[in-house]
Amino acid sequence: MCKSVLKTYLCAKIKINMSEEGKTPKITKTIMTEMVLPNDTNVLNNLRGGKILHWMDIATAISAGKLANRPVVTVSVDQVSFLNPVKLGDVITITSKVTRTFNTSIETHVEVWAENLPTRTKYKCNDAYYTFVALDSNNRPARVPRVEPETEEEIKKFDTALKRRQLRLVIAGRMKPEEADQLVALFT
């Protein structure tokens, strides 16, 4: 049964069966903190892009695993733009949460901020969406619990996740562009 205004909204919006328990994004929240050390940098003493992607993948995999309660594997990473270089000695904070699930796949959002400790200056580095598939004991895709967003921001990311999913599927060649009804609506 729908117990809150937001859950009532979701019940009507996506016509879900509320007798099947879902999970909230807040239980999947993962925060990682890393200091940029010499081994993490390039010749300009900036954090290597591959290293930050590695850390983002770990944080989002932990979030997806918290929801699935089973192993997950990375299926896709949406566009990652590097907004600002992260310098040697800076501390980065990586925050991720599950935004929505689709049968066996889990979409997560990750945001990365850096801080120069001596100056206490904080700046955004990048953000992205990572998608995972949960695996059963035979390493086959397994169903995952649905997500029940609670905050306005969680609902917005939940509502726009279908567009992102369809775009990923079209780009991967797993969906015809004309079948992507959420995307077609954007261009008509």
Tell me what you see in this structure.
The chain has a domain at 22-151: Hotdog Thioesterase (Thiol Ester Dehydrase, Chain A), CATH 3.10.129. Helices cover 30% and strands 27% of the residues. The protein has four helices and five strands; from the N terminus they run H-E-H-E-E-E-E-H-H. A hairpin with a 4-residue loop joins strand 4 and strand 5 (121-134).
In one word, what is the shape? Answer: globular
User: Unreliable runs, pLDDT <50, ≥5 residues?
Assistant: 1-20
- Overall strand count: 5
Please report which band the strand proportion falls in: under 5%, 5-15%, 15-25%, 25-35%, 35-45% or over 45%. Answer: 25-35%
Helical/strand content category:
alpha+beta
Query: How does CATH name the architecture of one domain?
Result: Roll
The first-level CATH class name of one domain: Alpha Beta
Radius of gyration: 18 Å
Question: Could you describe the largest sheet, including whether it forms a barrel?
Answer: 5 strands, antiparallel
Helix content: 25-40%
Strand order of the largest sheet: 1-3-4-5-2
Distance between the termini: 37 Å
**CATH homologous superfamily heading of one domain:** Hotdog Thioesterase
What do the pLDDT scores average to? 89
Helical stretch tally:
4
Q: In sequence order, what are the helices and strands, one letter per element?
A: HEHEEEEHH
What is the CATH topology of one domain? Thiol Ester Dehydrase, Chain A
